Structures are given as C-alpha cells and as structure tokens.
Amino acid sequence: MLLSAASLPASYLGHRGLIAEPIRVLVTGAAGQIAYSLLYSIAKGDVFGKDQPIILVLLDIPPMLPVLDGVVMELQDCALPLLREVIPTDKVEVGFKDLDAAILVGSMPRKEGMERKDLLKANVAIFKTQGAALEKYAKKTVKVLVVGNPANTNCLIAAKSAPSIPKENFSCLTRLDHNRASSQVAMRCGVPANNVKNVIIWGNHSSTQYPDVHHAKVNVHGSEMAAYDAVKDDAWLKGDFISTVQQRGAAVIKARKLSSAMSAAKAICDHMRDIWFGTKEGEFISMGIYAAGNSYGIPEDLIYSFPVQIKNKSWKVMDGLAINDFSRAKMDATAAELVEERDTAMAFLSQ
Fold first, then answer.
1. Where are the domains of the chain?
2. CA–CA distance, 257 with 237 (Å, rounded to integer)
3. Binding region
4. CATH architecture for the domain at 175-346
5. What's the topology of domain 5-172?
6. What are phi and psi of 56, to 5 degrees?
7. How far apart are CA 175 and CA 315, in angstroms?
8. Is 178 considered catalytic here?
9. What is the CA radius of gyration of the chain?
C-alpha cells in the first residue's frame, strides 16, 4: 500500500516534491555473509539514492529460510524510512518478479577436493535457472550484477539464459579488485584512497586478473601525477602489487577464516551506485561486461572486466588507451582463462 505525501517523511519526496515509486531490488544468497554486510547500506539509501523507497526481495535456499527470518527482523528493527517492504522467499517466481535491480550473490562455493569444472557445472545449473527467471518475471530494464563466483562465467550463463534482456544490462563484480588496487597504490604513496583514480582491472575475477595502473593518476599534495611517477617503484608495480591484488581474497580468508564480506559489500554498493548515478567526470571504473565490439582485441562472447564510464545507466568502454607489451600479455592470459571457462560452461549448458 502506498502512503499519501502528507504521511511520508521528507526523505520520500523526490525532486519537484513527487513521491518516488519504490524500486524492487533482489539480493540472492540473502542469508549469507556478504548480504548481511550489504542489505543495511541498500535499505538506508546509500546505493539507489536518499529519496528512493526500496522493496527488498531476499532469496535463498529452503534450509536458510530460518536464518533469513532473523535478517528480516533486523532490517525491521533498523526502522529505516526508505525501506517500504522486505520479502523473504525461496521461490524464483516471487524473487524475480518485476525487478529493477538484481544482485546475484548466491552461488555454489568451491569445496575441498572440487575441481574447477565441477564448480562450473554446479554454477551453470544455478545461473541458468536464475537467468530463465529473469527472462520470465523481471522487467526488461533490470540491471543485473553477478557476484557469486566464478562471477564472469556465471554472469555470461545468466545473460544467455535471459535472451530478451539486453546483454548490456548484465555485469559482474570486479569493483572489489579495483578498490583493492586503488588502496594498495594509495597506501604506497601515503595518500587517501580517493586520491587515486583510473586504475583498471582487466579480465577475470580470478587470480589471472590484471590490475593495471599505467593510466592511473595519484593526487599527491594537490598535484596530480601518473601512478608510476607517484609510486617510484616500477618493480613493485609490475610484481608484488599485481600478485597482492590477485591473491587478496585468499589472504583475507587465510587471516579471517571467512571470506571478504565487508569489502565485497562495499564494492557492490559502489558498482550499483555508479550504474544508477554515473561515474565522475574524467574518471573510469572497472566492471565485468559483455565483450562484444571492444577495441582491445578481447575475444567476443565473454564477460570481461574493462575500464568503463557510465552515464544514464549505460556503460561505455574507455577506448583508445595505450597498451604496452607487458599489459598485452597479461590481458591475453586472463582472456584465455575466460575462453576456457566459457567453453566448459557452454558444454554443460547444452546438456
């Protein structure tokens, strides 16, 4: 039931004093760790805007429904003015209905002794089902972010399983890697993280990804300079920096005995907010997108992480960046892994 303007707090009133219609946002794997760090930020307006009412749809598997009930209670107890409704469910026809945004966090995690192809097979089944549900129940304008790993290939399977939704509406999360890379450079230069811009994550959200700072800028004492000039340590930038970003998720798990839920949730918020409101002028961010028609020689029909600018909820790859031989080799290596993943997944999809 929608409320009258008189009964709503000012935060509900959008521009020109009109009441904003609530948007439906789905989070899958909603009883899990990442969702627990994510849902509060979405519900209080950090992602879709401070005047945008939200209907949160929380999807998980049947054994997790009792946990989900606890999450719903906590969201209610936060007394958030923008949160219009919370819908917990284990049914795709409820979860995917009339969505404006879908954040697909849930996936089959890799278990001890599981080979990568086994992981791919399990996730193909999940994301084929979710893609079909998007196709059948969601708005054709829905923006879909895939977080669950292997995120790039899961995203490709979901997109292929929802043929009437534009491929451009699907993306996978490499913003966490992007944020990790920015932070590493900032710490090295002794500046705040927001003084670093235009790092790039190329390729797969895996240990083959290529964190590239050849086009990054660092603001040091009010003066903007190239990252290589600011860091003054080429060996580090071409060695330990890259491996640190590539292996960061594993390092967090080793230290915490749990995955990087807080930083992943922050990256999801950054990614979706940039889709909704656009990137800053003169800046680009990294996200895994459909590789059709790119100017960097990356094979088509992949979800590959590129530098993008976003405006009016549409992304555009930053074309024309100079690519040296060092970068080319790294970009091609991560593309080769994605081609192999895609071909394995497509074989399972056609079964």
1. 5-172, 175-346
2. 28
3. 60, 110, 116, 123, 147-149, 180
4. Alpha-Beta Complex (3.90)
5. Rossmann fold (3.40.50)
6. -95, 125
7. 14
8. no
9. 20
Cα–Cα distance measured from residue 68 to residue 64, given in angstroms and rounded to the nearest whole number: 6
Closest C-alpha among 192, 238, 185, 243 to residue 216: 185
- pLDDT tens-digit readout, 284-321: 999 999 999 999 999 999 999 999 999 999 999 999 99
Taking the CA atoms of residue 244, residue 118, residue 253 and residue 204 in that order, the dihedral angle to the nearest 10 degrees is 30
Minimal CA–CA distance to 171: which of 270, 298, 60, 266?
A: 270
What does the pLDDT look like over 202-227, one tens digit per residue? 999 999 999 999 999 999 999 999 99
Residues in the annotated binding site for NAD(+): 60, 123, 147-149
Query: Can you say which residues are annotated as belonging to the binding site for substrate?
Result: 110, 116, 149, 180
| 285 CB-contact burial (10 Å; exposed 0-12 / middle 13-18 / buried 19+) | buried
Which one of the listed residues 15, 178, 205, 214 is annotated catalytic? 205
Nearest partner of 188 among 125, 258, 237, 151, judged by Cα = 237
The phi, psi pair for 85, rounded to 5°, reads: -160, 150
Classify residue 19 by its DSSP letter. B
Q: Which residues contact 10 (CB under 8 A, 6 or more apart)?
A: none
- At a CB cut-off of 8 Å and minimum separation 6, what does 279 contact? 285, 308, 309, 310, 311
CA dihedral in degrees (247, 118, 346, 314; nearest 10)? Answer: -40
